[in-house]
Write a structure and sequence with these properties.
With 248 residues, the chain is α+β, with helices and mostly antiparallel strands. The chain has a single domain, classed as Sandwich (Immunoglobulin-like). The chain has three helices and 13 strands. Strands 2, 4, 6, 7, 9, 11, 12 and 13 form an eight-stranded mixed sheet that branches. It has a five-stranded mixed sheet with strand order 5-8-3-1-10. The longest helix has 23 residues. It is elongated and about 50 Å long. The protein starts with a helix and ends with a helix.
Length: 248
């Protein structure tokens, strides 16, 4: 009876610990600026900043992807330059950019020779957006959608958060939203461009360096909030099961 009760409680505790460990690691993708001002026909560049403390075993991020979406009547993203964040330790970054529908592109960066991944905060990518010559006066929403980040050597998905910013076109006006809906997939999946500068190394004067709280994967917080909660419940459950069995 004691053994059976202990096994049941152990299984229940593990079910709580697993999701907590997998769900508490967060990757936050956001724009460096919440609002930009531009005129029809102009080119706008926006930085996509990535912030993450990595995983609980000290592992950092080795790859990530996201969609940048613009209202198609306003403009479209036309090129992407890999930022210094993933190449911080001198590694090379492989970049793939695919069509994600009207006014949207999907960006994927992967550290080609990752040893333990990267943590901290910095510019992950710089995206160029070309506004149409006939873009209407508007407040155009630009989205970071469908963000995804992968920890080095881990099969657990990170919780990844996107962001939105506004391009005030020609003094502003109607609020316009991208045609892309989060969860959409590219119609053809064909590469539309691959940046040539994917081996860019960190620059000492780069703004990302000023935001970075460390270098490699060991710069993040080593605490295990998810594990602490699940382990405590597990321990209390085992003690209760054993005590109950002994009283019988």
């Amino acid at each position: 009876m004691i053994a059976a009760a202990v096994i049941v409680v152990l299984l229940a505790g593990l079910a709580l610990v697993g999701p907590a460990l997998a769900g508490d690691a967060v990757a936050q993708f956001d724009f460096g600026e919440e609002e930009r001002t531009a005129s029809p026909g102009e080119t706008v560049t926006v930085d996509v900043v990535l912030r993450s403390d990595g995983g609980y075993a000290g592992e950092g991020i080795e790859s990530y992807s996201f969609v940048v979406a613009v209202p198609p009547e306003v403009g479209e993203p036309t090129s992407v330059e890999a930022g210094p964040w993933l190449a911080r330790d001198g590694g090379s970054v492989e970049q793939t950019v695919t069509d994600a529908g009207e006014g949207a592109i999907r960006v994927r960066h992967e550290q080609a020779d990752a040893e333990d991944g990267v943590t901290g905060a910095g510019v992950a990518a710089t995206v160029t957006i070309e506004l149409r010559e006939d873009a209407p006066a508007s407040d155009a929403t630009v989205l970071i959608a469908d963000p995804d980040a992968q920890l080095h050597g881990s099969d657990f998905p990170m919780r990844s958060l996107g962001d939105e910013a506004t391009i005030v076109v020609d003094g502003g006006g109607e609020q316009l939203e991208p045609a892309y809906q989060p969860g959409d997939r590219s119609g053809d999946g064909v590469d539309v461009t691959t940046a040539n500068e994917t081996n860019r190394t960190p620059e000492s004067g780069d703004d990302a360096g000023a935001e970075t709280d460390g270098g490699g994967a060991n710069s993040g917080d080593d605490s295990l909030p998810g594990f602490g909660l699940g382990a405590s419940i597990l321990a209390l459950g085992v003690l209760a099961a054993v005590a109950g069995a002994v009283r019988r």
